[in-house]
Design a protein that fits this description.
TRPL-trafficking_regulator, Hypothetical Protein Pfu-838710-001, CYTH-like_dom_sf, GTP binding, alpha+beta, disordered C terminus, two-stranded parallel ribbon, phosphatidylinositol binding, 5 helices, 2 domains
C-alpha cells in the first residue's frame, strides 16, 4: 500500500489491475499487522538527515507531509500501529516500541524487558458531527463467542466486512498470572462457518460499525453499535451506544489529541469484570467501566 501515497489514484488502481491484485486484499489480508515508524522529521527533528539515503531530497516539512500520506493509506487495517518519537532519546528506544507492539499483537509475554506503556483507552460518545469528520474507513463487524471448556480461556470469532468483501479472525485469550495474553489468527470463510457451529448461545453476538481514522499521530477506532446489547442499555446516549478507543503510550495523566467533531461525555476506565449479563459478556472489549467527565486527559 505504501506506493499508493506517491502516485495518483488512477495510476495506482491501474497497477493493481495489471498484477491482478485487489486493494481490499492488499490492505486487509496480506499482512497480519502493520507497524508504521513516524519519520524523525516529526518529533525528532535534530536527528533527521538525508546523508543515509542519497535518493531522498525532502526537507522537514515535505518529509512530514509524505509520512502522513503514507500512514493514511493503511487506514482500515485491523491491526495498525503507529510508532512515534515520543519519549525516544535514541533510535533504539523507538525500536523497542516496535518490538513491544509486535509482542502485544502476537501474544508474546515480554515481561520487564520492554516498555509496557501502551494501553487501550476508551471514551463514551454522545454524538458525531459527520460534516466535520476526517477521512475514515468504515467496516461492519460481528463478534461471536465460542464455547470453551477451559474456564480461563476465552475464544471469539470476528467477521469484518467492507463493500461486500470480508475477512475473518479467531482470537483466543488465555490467563497467564494476572494478565490475559491474546493470540489472533486469520481464518478462511470455511473455517469461520465451522467455528460458528461452536457458538456459545448464552452470549449474544455483537454488531457494530467501526470507523478507523487518525488525528495527528494517533490511530482511533469509533465503534457504533447497530444493536445495543441488553446489559449496556444504561450506557447508551440518545438511544445510541458509541465508543471511541485508541492505544497510546502517552503516560497516565498525559493529554491525548481527541477529535473535536465528537461530543465525548465520559472517560471509560477499563476494569476487571464484564457488564455482568450472560447475554452480553464481552470478554475482550466491553468490561465494567468507572467513568469520569474528564475526557481530554488520561487518568
Amino acid at each position: 500500500m505504501d506506493p499508493s501515497a506517491y502516485i495518483d489514484r488512477e495510476s495506482w488502481l491501474r497497477i493493481l489491475s495489471e498484477i491482478n491484485v485487489e486493494e481490499f486484499d492488499l490492505l486487509n489480508k496480506r499482512y497480519d499487522q502493520v507497524v508504521h515508524m513516524v519519520t524523525a522529521a516529526d518529533g525528532a527533528e535534530l536527528y533527521y538527515t538525508l546523508d543515509n539515503n542519497t535518493s531522498r531530497k525532502e526537507d522537514l516539512q515535505a518529509a512530514r507531509e509524505m509520512d502522513q500520506k503514507t500512514r493514511k493509506v493503511w487506514l482500515g487495517h485491523p491491526y495498525f500501529d503507529i510508532i512515534d518519537n515520543t519519549e525516544c532519546i535514541k533510535f533504539e528506544d523507538k525500536v523497542l516500541k516496535v518490538i513491544q507492539v509486535v509482542c502485544d499483537r502476537t501474544g508474546i509475554d515480554s515481561q520487564d524487558r520492554l516498555s509496557k506503556n501502551s494501553r487501550k483507552r476508551k471514551w463514551l460518545v454522545r454524538s458525531i458531527d459527520d460534516s466535520r469528520f476526517v477521512k475514515y474507513e468504515q467496516f461492519n463487524i460481528k463478534h461471536e463467542y465460542l464455547l470453551s471448556y477451559e474456564p480461563e480461556s476465552q475464544i471469539r470469532i470476528r467477521s469484518r466486512e467492507q463493500n461486500g468483501r470480508s475477512t475473518y479472525t479467531v482470537t483466543k485469550r488465555d490467563l497467564h498470572g494476572e494478565e490475559y495474553v491474546e493470540t489472533r489468527t486469520q481464518i478462511t470463510f470455511r473455517e469461520y462457518t465451522c467455528y460458528q457451529k461452536m457458538r456459545d448461545k448464552s452470549r449474544a453476538p455483537l454488531h457494530k460499525q467501526r470507523r478507523c481514522f487518525m488525528i495527528e499521530n494517533q490511530y482511533f477506532n469509533l465503534d457504533i453499535y447497530t444493536v445495543v446489547p441488553p446489559s449496556a442499555i444504561s450506557l447508551q446516549l440518545d438511544n445510541r451506544l458509541i465508543f471511541l478507543e485508541t492505544y497510546t503510550t502517552i503516560p497516565v495523566g498525559g493529554r491525548v489529541p481527541l477529535p473535536d467533531f465528537l461530543e465525548i461525555t465520559k472517560v471509560l476506565y477499563v476494569g476487571i469484570l464484564c457488564f455482568g449479563s450472560p447475554l452480553f459478556l464481552e470478554y475482550y472489549e466491553l468490561r465494567v467501566f468507572h467513568c469520569s467527565n474528564k475526557y481530554d486527559t488520561l487518568q
